[in-house]
Structure formats: C-alpha cells, structure tokens
Amino acid sequence: MDTREFNRLMKYAHMNDDTNGVLGSIYNNELPHPYFNPEDIGFTHLRNSDHNLWLSREDSQRTIVFQDLEFIIIGDEFQWEATGEPPCLEQDKLVLSYTSTNDHLWPCEHAFSNWHLVQTNMMNNDTFVEQKDQRPYFADILLGNLKNMRQTFFDLLKENDQLENNLISAFGVYKTPFIDQGTADIDIFFRELNKGGYVNTTTQFKNKNFASQFISKHLLESSWISIVAETIDDNRLFFPTEKTGKALMSNKPFLVLSSKHFLKKLREFGFKTFHPFINEDYDEIDDVTERTKKVFESFIELQQKDQTILRKQLQVVLEHNEKCMRNKEWLSRHARAMLDPLITIV
Question: Maximum CA pair distance of the chain?
Fold first, then answer.
C-alpha cells in the first residue's frame, strides 16, 4: 500500500465512532482499520471499566457493536439496570469474551472473540520463551489470589510435599523465593506489587494493559509445564483469560483449573490440547472439587515422565498453539466475519 492510499484510508479510519477502541482488538493495528459509517454504526463496550455499570445507547436507529470484556449468564441471576432489558437491540452486534449455556437468549447476533487472548497477543508479540534443556522446577503454578479451586489445589500441594520442586505464587500466602530473582521489568513490577495480601493483577504495567497479561521469561523458562489457574469454575461458562493465553503463547504444556469442558471448548475454537500424552480426564468432571483433585492426579502422573521426551511428543501441538496465539487475525476471526459485511467501502 503506497503512502497516499494509506493516508486516505487512515482519514476514514479516524472517523469511526469507536471511543473505546473496540476495533483495535479485532482488526490489525498496523493497517488502517476498516471504515464503518458513523451515521449507521457505532462501537462501545457493553459495560464500563469496572464492569458494574451497563452502558446505555444514545438512540435506537443505529447499529451498535457492543464488546463485553468479562462474563455474565444472560437470563439467569443478572438483572439489567433501568429497563430490565439488555442495551443491545435486534439490529446490534455483540463481541463476547466468553460463551455460556444461555447465549441463545441474546437478542442480537454475537461472536466469540476473546479480548484477553488478543491483549496477551499484543502485549507479548516480541517475547519468545526459550525452551531450555535443563530447568530447576517442574511446574510454574501462579495461583494468584487464592479462591475456590486455587485454594484446593494449593492445599493438595502442601499435603503432598510439592512446595519445593515447583514455582508457586499464592498472593499473601506463599511464594517460591526464586520468583523474586527475576530482573526483567515485569518481574520487578510484580515483586513490588506482591508485598502483602490481595493483589490487583489488573493494575497497568507501563501504561499499556493489565500487568498479568505480560509474560515473565524468568518464570516460564524455569519450569517444564504450567498449571493454569483460570478465573471461572462455573460449568455454564467458557471464559479463557491471559492465564491460558500465556501458556499457549509460551510453547508450554499445561493443566488447567477451570470449568468443565474448558479443554473441549479450546479445541472447538481451534487450539490443540495434550491427550493422550497428558491425562485430561478431569475436563469431563462436573464437581469443581473433584475436578481439581483430578487435575492434581494428572500433575503427579506427569512428574514421572521424562520431560524432554514429552516435549518431543507434544512438539506439533505446542507449535500449533503458539502459532495461533501469535496470530491476532486468527484469534479475532469470528468477530471479523460478523463485522466485515458492515464495512463501508471508500
């Protein structure tokens, strides 16, 4: 694209009604975003930055493209403010960071395009985790703020003498001393942040985005596998975050603490998981406590394997996942397929 054409398209891109930067998480930032006539189409988040206030629409004439960064189960315990109805209307579009059993209740067309995976892609595109032949720890287990399944898993680690041979961080409770030896900016940032109890991992790092979205090479290069401690364990929801994204992008095998069929949904989206080389039977278990115990069983089984041989067995899977995570267009393809017909040709 020559400079003149680039500038012409940029002029139109800046005319989009997109004060929340929704298009930046869907289209390639290195090229002008497509032009959507602002008289007909607007872009906004479904909720405000703390996710508690539902944004209202200015009028009922335009198509509004809403993006939801977090999760709800529509039609269940959630109550819309004011009208009792969702702000989106039949003509609108909705970009969701999750899928739920009640998605069919949305009044408008919707597509899964996970904001957290896309942000992990953009924050770490220049970061590559070296796959070393020798590593001092078996697993990185970054549990963060302990709750529910994370607490259960941490208790199992303690009961089974697993604290010494793994990299473990449980805010305000336990931290492997090696974690504080990192010298990169993100390691120093978290060392200062994690000095007390509860830690807000959505704190911005270098004025970009959530600190938790940045990869620590110091940690991920020092362990063979990752235990991904996800945010949600509700079986009605599939909600991957940067926790999963960093493992996928770092070429790491992982076990995940999350909802039932989390791995199944990852595969449906296009990633690959690790059966039969890693026992993933836990993905079929309904009860969160029993599912967490089954993850721990797989974790113990994995320690008996030669990790260099395991990596060779999983090489195709690991390379596929990293390639997908490094491809923003692939991650947001469902949202683009929904929005592309709305583009105004200029």
Answer: 66
Quote the CA–CA distance of 205 and 214 in Å, as a whole number. Answer: 8
CA atoms of 63 and 290, how far apart (whole Å): 45
Strands 99-100 and 223-229: unpaired
DSSP code at position 320: H
Q: How far apart are the first and last CA of the chain?
A: 15
Whether pLDDT at 55 is above 90: no
287 vs 61 pLDDT, higher one: 287
For residue 65, list its beta bridge partners: 43, 93
pLDDT tens string 92-128: 999 999 999 999 988 899 999 999 999 999 999 999 9
- CA–CA separation, 3 vs 10, rounded Å? 10
* Residues 37-58, mean pLDDT to the nearest whole number: 76
More confident residue, 2 or 80: 2
Burial 323-332 (b: 16+ CB within 10 A, else e): ebbeebeebb
Tokens of 253: 């095998």
- How far is residue 18's CA from residue 339's CA, in Å, rounded to a whole number? 14
Q: Are strands 99-100 and 109-112 parallel, antiparallel or unpaired?
A: unpaired
Structure tokens at 63: 């198509």
* Confidence check: pLDDT of 161 > 90: yes
Query: Quick one: which H or E segment has residue 100?
Result: strand 99-100
